[in-house]
Queue: 4 jobs
Job 1
Amino acid sequence: MLTADLHTHTRFSDGTDTPEELLAAAQAAGLTTVGLTDHDTADGWDQAAEHVPPGMRVVPGAEFSTKHPGGDGALVSVHLLGYLFDRDHPLITAEWKRIVDERTNRGARIVQSLVAAGYPITLDQVRDKAGRGNIGRPHIARTLVDAGVIGTVGEAFEGILEDGGPHHVSLRSTSLVEGIEMIVAAGGVPVIAHPRARTAAAVLSAPVLETLVDVGLAGLEVRHPDHDHAARAELVGIAADLGLLTTGSSDYHGGNKTLRIGQERTDDDVVEQIVDRGAVAPFVG
């Protein structure tokens, strides 16, 4: 059966729902298991644990921002899902503190650049969008939308906030190998998110994925809104050859993306394998 969605986001990163709202939406969609995977934080875990509907469980996790070198040596963004890891493991806490510090400074620097260029926004407005979460470009984009500068969040990433654009501020990202090693060291289960979407497809060849299995990679997110039939078929074949788990997820962000929670799902038997491997128990309603 397919009753699990293992990739969702709340207000604790770049989603728009609270954990309680997200779980209510999941229940309405008929899901029995939800993976909570905010970007580079486990801050939403406690609220999620308090609001799990009866008959549902939450697989606590996170989506780690990592990079991996391409053929030309340039670093390419790859997102890495980690499930059921010890969030207090020193490798995790140290890296996330570094990321939070850099992102906070980065958000302020981007806003300062936009204000200097005449855009009608302020850092306080962006902080209001971020709430308790890290300040990220989606929060800046939503502020620009509210100010009437652009029509959609996606439009901001294609123009004003694009990588390499005049307002871009780079970050030192965790390497993909380091990310996998951190999750494994913390007792978690690492799965690469949407490996055939965006720029990741150019670097995640079958031989590269094979080397990542050697450092602890456990699975690939195969069923994802950004993957067409050919990509899914290719990934299923690679996973079978390498002995990797295959997952399916919506990558739900609430109102920030036109994605329905549960529109892509993970086989229940795969969920059980992830639960069996993890160091932390799911939250049960």
Note: The mean pLDDT is 94.
Job 2
Amino acid sequence: MATATPALTGTSASADTATTSATPGGWRRARPWAMPLIGLGVSLAFLWPYLVMLLGAFRPSSDVVQTPASVLPRVWKWTTFPEVLGDERFLAWLRTSVVVALASTAIVVVVAIPAAYFTARFRFRGRMAFLFLVLVTQMFSPTSLVVGIYREFFTVNLVNTYLALILTNAAFNLAFAIWILHGFFASIPRELEEASELDGCGRVGTLWRVMLPLTLPGLVTATIFTFIAAWNEYVVALTLMLDDSRKPLTVGINSYVTGYEQNWDQLFGASLIAIVPVVILFALIEKHLVGGLTSGAVK
């Protein structure tokens, strides 16, 4: 009997363990329906401001400021978006944003690719100092430099020009693009370049035909972030662009609500239209963007 007791005890413990593991806890039972509800709540919290803007675009301005506030419009107005799209001022602001964002992104990509490739593949004196300098430029906010930027462009007579905004946006986004592309180029084995050179490709041909396709996720990431930063820039544009017809969307749409007129419905409608290009861009290149952000996480 004495020798059988441990065996019985072990058997009982094993049975208790099996029973415990077979019976899921309270969280395990609730997780299949609790997690979707939590995700839905978080999604609604992020989407609520956009829903407020959408509903605000479908109500008269007098209804927006009326108290007590109501979630749904008291009176529905369906002409807001046609009014905004037919506004010559809005079309001018949209044109400025498109031109500045595309030109800034193009400059950043053209400059960042050779700079990142050269610093990743060649060792030269001052290389680390150059990379450190590129990183330091990310620490300065355009807001803290806006007075100096205005003074510099005023000296060369570039205030109130597209070129001023393009150069400023390109300068402030170039460092990020160089750093992210530098990491991608550095991760590519040198044997691929050597094989390409043996096949007759020169340095430029290797960069164009071998390296760039392999760094496509990083290139897409740098491109989309540069475009969004230029598209959303506000402080420098507010300072440099004096002519109302040359202002970008971020600055121009504030003209809908001033001390003399309050067109809240048009402000909400213009804001929603300004979001559309970025949303479409994300939808088109989402898989490349996720690959660029997560590259290197798994070896």
Note: Residues 49 and 211 are 42 Å apart (CA to CA).
Job 3
Amino acid sequence: MSVTQPHVLLVEDEPAQREVLAYNLEAEGYTVSRADNGEEAMLQIREITPDLVILDWMMPLMSGIEVCRQLKTKEETRNIPVIMLSARSEEVDTVRGLETGADDYVIKPYSLRELMARVRTQLRRSRPLASGETLRFLDITLDPERHRVTRSGVELKLGPTEYRLLATFLEKPGRVLSRDQLLDLVWGSDIYVDTRTVDVHIARLRKALALGGGDDPIRTVRGAGYALG
């Protein structure tokens, strides 16, 4: 299975800075979406949930602080890591940014090498599979290096789609994912698949996990989607 590359939303109203940063992020292998104001950023996030948001503080229409506040107060977006960029270097500004919910605060002008390192750190938390880390939940283990899934020590045979589904759930345990979100994360946003297809593959994944014993770890949330645990 090829792991989908982490998706970074870059929100910066200064075109030159936005393009330089986007170029460096793409050179790291990330998929990059761009927005030049806070309102556009929120619209994009509602359509496709990114793995990381890099967010400038001072922007037209809606400030980075307000975007961050809204993201961190909503259940479906509160776990998205946010790196705040700002020319405001006073300690009180850093504290305000972090208290709003930003996961990191970078002062302009910044070193691109340092910023890329901070991006990698945040993505290891939100997309551990892309970093090659073994994922675990209760008695379920997924080893991406060996492409091996076990439950209570019993190796499970999963199809490619069921493997990607399980990996997606393991990266976001407890989080409710809608069918549309699962389609984007597992099949890709550029491929049309009927949402009922998700239900079919969830059923197959449940059947495979049952062979390892134990209760069904996938929870159906009526009217919302599915969650692991």
Note: The mean pLDDT is 85.
Job 4
Amino acid sequence: MKTTRSLVLLALLGLLGIGATLWLQHAATPRIAAEQRALQARRLLDVLPAGSYDNHPLDQRLPLGDVQLSNSRLLDGYLATRNGQPSAVLLRSQVSGYAGPIELLIAIDSQGRLLGSKPLRQDETPGLGARIAEWPNAWLQVFSGKSRHDPGDAAWALKKDHGQFDQIAGATITSRAVISALHDALRYFDEHHEQLLPRAPHE
């Protein structure tokens, strides 16, 4: 009888322990998910200058769909705002590199100037084109502050193609692809400015 009571007590304690563990896991799941989301947001949003937005841009998607451009595709877009006014757009772009698709996040301010860009995915050759994935990236920083017309359309190319920009050493195709994607995004922004930057209702 005593043994039976002990076994029942142990079983109850075991069930209580399992229940407590499950409850703690359930209670912690939203916090863990929120922390993972915040980490992902920080990783993506470091292309935007600190203090340039006060919303959660990744929660404010732009109705782009899948847009085919001259040399690349726009997969998605997000709006950054400050004090309720649009401050920048983030465009997720895909272009064909040397070894496969290169996916970029491209930030453009409300005046159509490039704030920054970073690769989200690439399969380029290690030691050559794959250097596009280094962060921070000195080569990509060269394009910050540029716009569709600064330099002009014809200058958005490598120097070897009579354009303005140097290439990543040993990675001509990768460099051409990224420059084309940046130029495509700036041109798209310029041509769809009103759609991408909706004004506040009182304006």
Note: The first strand starts at residue 67 and ends at 68.
